[in-house]
Amino acid sequence: MLKKDLRIHFLEKRKSAPQSALQQVGFQLSQHAKNLPIWDLSVYHIFLQSVKKNEIDTTAIIDLLREENKEIVVPKISADFHLQHFHLLKDTVLENNPWGIPEPVNGIPVPPLKIDVVFVPLLAFDRKGHRVGYGKGYYDRFLSECRKDCLKVGLSLFEAVEEISDTGKQDIPMNYCLTPERIYSF
Ligand SMILES: Nc1nc2c(c(=O)[nH]1)N(C=O)[C@@H](CNc1ccc(C(=O)N[C@@H](CCC(=O)O)C(=O)O)cc1)CN2
Ligand SMILES: Nc1ncnc2c1ncn2[C@@H]1O[C@H](COP(=O)(O)OP(=O)(O)OP(=O)(O)O)[C@@H](O)[C@H]1O
Which PANTHER family match (predicted)? Predict the structure, then answer.
C-alpha cells in the first residue's frame, strides 16, 4: 500500500480511540519496552503525546526512563521541517504547539549524534520495519542526523501492514516496533 493511503486510513482509525485506550496502550508498550535489549545505553529520545491528535500516551515510557535514570530528550519543531531536541528535566516548562504537542519552551539543544535510542511515533509500519508518519519528513530528517547505530523503536497503536510499497532511500527502517499485542524485531 502507498504511504498516503495508509496515512489516511490510520489517522481515521485513530480518531475513534478514547483517551483511556491511549493511556492503556502506553502502559502496554512500556511493559514490552522492558523486554527490549536497549537498556545499557544513556540518552533516550521520546515524543510527548498530542491529546488533540489522539496519539499514544507516552507517560508510562517516560516514567520507565526516569526509573532507569536515563537522560530523556524530547523534540521541538524548528524551521524548515527540522526538529530541535532538549532534555526533559523535572523543571522543564512545556507549552502546547498548534498541533497540541507539548514542547519545551527553551533549553540547551542536544545534538542528534548524542542520542542512543529514539522512540518513533508511527501511523503505520510494515513487516520490514518501514514506517509512515505525518508525512512532513520531520523524523526522516531527524533519523538521518543520528548515528547509524542509534536504535529506533517504533510505537504503534496498530499491527504491521504487509508492505509499504513506496519506500525510498531516505527512509530509515526501525530496529523494533512495539504494539499492544507484541514486539516486532527487524
Ligand atoms: N507527539 C509528537 N511529537 C512530534 C511528532 C509526532 O508525530 N508526535 N512529530 C513527528 O513528525 C514532529 C512534529 N510533526 C508534525 C507533523 C505534521 C504536522 C502537521 O500536520 N501540520 C499541518 C498543519 C495541521 C494544522 O494546522 O492543524 C501542516 O503543516 O499542514 C505537525 C507536526 C515532532 N514532534
Ligand atoms: N533526509 C531528508 N532530507 C530532506 N527531505 C527529506 C528527508 N527525508 C524525507 N524527506 C522528505 O520529507 C517528505 C515526507 O516523507 P515521507 O512521505 O516518507 O513521510 P513520513 O516518513 O511519513 O513523515 P515523517 O518523517 O514526518 O514522519 C518527503 O517529501 C521527503 O522527500
Answer: 5-FORMYLTETRAHYDROFOLATE CYCLO-LIGASE, ATPASE INHIBITOR/5-FORMYLTETRAHYDROFOLATE CYCLO-LIGASE
